[in-house]
Write a structure and sequence with these properties.
By secondary structure, the chain is mostly helical. The protein is built from nine helices and two strands; from the N terminus they run H-H-H-H-H-H-H-E-H-H-E. The chain has helices at residues 19-27, 36-49, 54-67, 73-77, 81-88, 97-115, 120-126, 144-156, 163-172; strands at 133-134, 176-177. Helix 2 packs across helix 3, helix 2 (36-49) runs antiparallel to helix 6 and helix 2 (36-49) packs across helix 7. The two termini are 17 Å apart.
Length: 189
């Protein structure tokens, strides 16, 4: 992506080489997302990434969406043994039974929160005071806040929500702005 005068636009180093990662960085990563369903989907996908690279999940994201009913929590919460067997046979997704089970349970928890009057998006953004945290300097893998959020998610019953996964989710959803100081996507840049 070139700027006026032919100079290259500056972006985060991790998004330089792969076209899919570059597009994800330029259009999605770090953009504040407030929609409860979209935030839940992103958290579930971050869980599937555990032990793998994000590009693996990103390449399979559309297959995940098809397999998990477009991440409609109402539909996913009803998945049973036949659905788990179908998902375990779907080569388009990451076939890890524990992660599939965690996504189904995550949908049920999402709905339980909603039924108790707590919207997932409002809950998540309240954790950062309603606006993105802007970091400077080296990007951490986790923070005291991601450790706190991880504990809260685990208390609710979510799985695959360790502090590193949670921090990655917070970055991706725009709750934390960790774009490089010279990146064109940095808030206020």
């Amino acid at each position: 992506m070139a700027a006026k005068g032919g100079s290259e636009i500056k972006r985060c180093a991790w998004a330089q080489n792969d076209p899919l990662m570059r597009e994800y960085h330029d259009k999605e990563w770090g953009v504040p997302e407030h929609d409860s369903r979209a935030l839940w989907e992103l958290l579930m996908l971050e869980g599937f990434q555990a032990g793998l690279s994000w590009i693996t999940v990103l390449r399979k994201r559309e297959a995940f969406r098809r397999a998990f009913a477009e991440f409609d929590p109402v539909m996913v919460a009803r998945f049973g043994e036949k659905d788990v067997a179908r998902l375990m046979g779907d080569a388009g997704i990451i076939r890890a039974k524990a992660k599939i089970d965690a996504t189904i349970r995550g949908a049920q928890i999402f709905l339980e929160m909603r039924e108790s009057g707590t919207e997932f998006g409002e809950w998540a953004w309240a954790l950062v005071g309603g606006k993105p945290i802007r970091n400077k300097g080296a990007m951490p893998a986790q923070t005291p806040l991601s450790e706190k959020v991880s504990k809260e998610l685990k208390l609710k019953g979510f799985k695959f929500v360790g502090p590193v996964i949670v921090y990655s989710w917070m970055q991706a959803s725009g709750m934390v702005d960790d774009h490089a100081e010279d990146c064109f996507r940095r808030m206020g840049a």
